[in-house]
Structures are given as C-alpha cells and as structure tokens.
Amino acid sequence: MLRSPLHDRHLALGARIVPFAGWEMPIQYQGIVAEHQAVRSAAGIFDISHMGEFEVEGPGALDWLNGLLTNDLAALAVGEGQYTLLLNENGGVIDDLIAYRTGGERYFLVVNAARIGQDREWMLAHPGEGVTFRDRSAELGAFAVQGPKAIAFWHEIEPGAGVIPAHNRIRELGPITLCGTGYTGEEGFEFFAPAEEIGGWWDRFVAAGAIPCGLGARDTLRLEKCFPLNGNDLDEVHTPIEAGLGFFVKLDKPGGFIGRDALHSQKELGIRTRLSAIRLLDKAPPLRHGYEVLAANGSGKVAELSSGSLSPGLGLGVGLAYLPSEMSRPGTELLIAIRDKTYPAKVVKKPFV
User: Fold this and answer.
1) DSSP state of 174
2) Which of 32, 156, 165, 231 holds its CA 20 to 30 A away from the CA of 147?
3) CA distances from 341 to 291, 292, 334, 336 (A)
C-alpha cells in the first residue's frame, strides 16, 4: 500500500485510515456528515495526493491527445482546462480526467488514482510523433480546498500571490500549480506541489480554518451533485453517452479518437441504458453500491446501484444506476432492495442537491 506525503498528518489529526486504490487514505476525521456540512457551509481540505499527474509536451502533443481523448483540446487557450474521457475501442471508459493546456505545446493531465498505471500503459501503447510524456505522479503531492470560504483562505495565507484560477483554469506559480476545478460542486481549487513541500502548505490551510475531510465526505458531496465515480459509475462496459456525459464527447472533431465509431453508432441507434439518479421516498437505511433496483410493478430486478449513500443535504438515501432507457425518466417509480425489505424510490432529475 502506498502512503501520501501527508500520511503522518492524517494520523496526528485522528483520521481513520482505509485502503483505497492501492493507497492508505483517510476516510474521515470528525465524521462524514460534519465534514460534508463543513464543505457546504465553510471550507474543507482533502488530501488528493493519490491522484495521478501526467505532463505531455511537444509539437505533436495536441494531435496525439486529441486522438486519445473525447473532448477537443484544440478549443483550449493556454491556462484553460476541460473534463474529458479516455476510452477503449468499444467506447467504454478507461478513465475520466481533467486536461489543462499549460503552454503552447504543453499539457497537464490529472487522472484517477486507480487508473494511473492503466492510463499510462494505454496512452504509451498508442504513441505519437513529436510527443514527450512524463508521469509526475510520484513527484507531486496535492490537496483540494472546497467550500464557500476556500478562496478567502488562499488570500489570507498568501495575500500577495494573486487570484485563484477561475473554473476550468490553471495557474503555475513556480513549483506550485493551482487548478480551479473540484469534485464537490462548491467553489474551490486543487493545489499541487512537490511531495516534500506539500505538508507545510497543508498545515497553513488547516491553521487558517480549513476542515480536514476524508474520502467519505468527498463521496457524499460528489454524489449529491451526481458527479460520476470511476470504477463505480464509469467503467469499460458503459459509454459516456450512457453515462450522460455526451457534452464532453466531440464526435465530429478532426481526426476522431479511439472509441469514436462505437459512440457514433450508439448515438444513431439509441442507448439501452442510462445512468440515472434515484432517490428514496422515505427514510430508510443508507443506499449502497450493489443494492438491487426493482421495478415497482413487481416484475423483478432491473439494475444495481453503481453508487449509493445517505445525502446529508436531503436526509434521504440517494444513488445512481444504469436503468433501462424506458425506465430512466424522472418520476419513474422503483423499489430498492435492502437486505430482506424493499423501499419505494423514484427517478429524479440530476443533481440531487
């Protein structure tokens, strides 16, 4: 198991540590609900040092990346970023990631922890000319500061350092990289620095009042906003079209991309399943990944939850599942099987909160 450069700090703060994607990571400190509410009302800080970082540079970088990723990097000015996906030949999702343009021929990619090796191998197995690829994952530590007070903390800590990048923007300050994205639906940013320096920066934000938060709150926050989780809601079987991510797929960009033909056919023929938001109608045990979704008319199982939890904002169980397209419309009534009982639920519009 790998350890974050912030591992000792998590232990000192009383974090509960769990295995995650090959890492020992904090699941919670003072409690998932308290940490969730801290992000919604003030600001929380999350260790994301397990995430991967790739740098791609050279005259062939744009064409190479555009042939691998679904979105169109040609639309990016220097300093801009976009959400995009890496697919297999059948259109299934290998990974979802953020790609930033940091220079005229230079790009910075942030990928999921569990997919670092697979992403690297897949990309290098499809080489391009005039491209330099560098995996910086082991060199960098990172954390995310999220919540309505996140940006104020930055100005308090570094009053003369300038503004935080706007949404989907990136800013480099020497060895530090700031990215204006997030996984909670709140204002905030990601902070990348050399692994040996990240601890001091973490300490400064915690001292300023940012609440340390674990993976548990990160999951409830992203689920309330219906942000998909790779490995649960995104996988190599389902496509971005089925996942409701068609906006980030540019089927007509010059040169195409791996998986494009499969998605084009799916777009023309229609999809059989759709990643849908499901909410319990009454209070019940929290929803969990793998719970069976049943038709309300008693005809049996129609899906399994790909994600599930208790929404602190709603006080009800919420989840995501790939439902048959004809059952994916908001208002469709369902049942969720939890142990030996079933509980009424319905499909709702995204996001939950």
Assistant:
1) T
2) 231
3) 11, 11, 13, 8
Q: What per-residue confidence (pLDDT) applies to 160?
A: 87
Element at 240 (helix H, strand E) = none
Q: How many helices (H) and strands (E) does the chain have?
A: 8, 20
| Superfamily for the 2-51+138-224 domain | Probable tRNA modification gtpase trme; domain 1 (3.30.1360.120)
User: How far is the C-alpha of 220 from the C-alpha of 229, rounded, in Å?
Assistant: 11
272-348 CATH, one of 1.10.10.10, 3.40.50.620, 2.40.30.110, 2.40.50.140: 2.40.30.110
What's the mean pLDDT in 170-193? 96
pLDDT at 234 over 90: yes
**pLDDT tens track for 238-296:** 999 999 999 999 999 999 999 999 999 999 999 999 999 999 999 889 999 999 999 99
Cis peptide before 351 (omega within 30 of 0): yes
CB-CB contact of 318 with 278 (8 Å): yes
Task: With beta carbons less than 8 A apart as the criterion, state whether 170 and 108 touch.
Answer: yes
**pLDDT (tens digit, 9 = 90+) per residue, 40-96?**
999 999 999 999 999 999 999 999 999 999 999 999 999 999 999 999 999 999 999
| pTM given for the model | 0.96
Per residue in 245-255, pLDDT (tens digit) is 999 999 999 99
pLDDT mean across residues, the chain: 97
Cα separation, 96 vs 236, in Å, equals 11
Q: Helices 215-224 and 32-41: crossing angle, nearest 10°?
A: 60
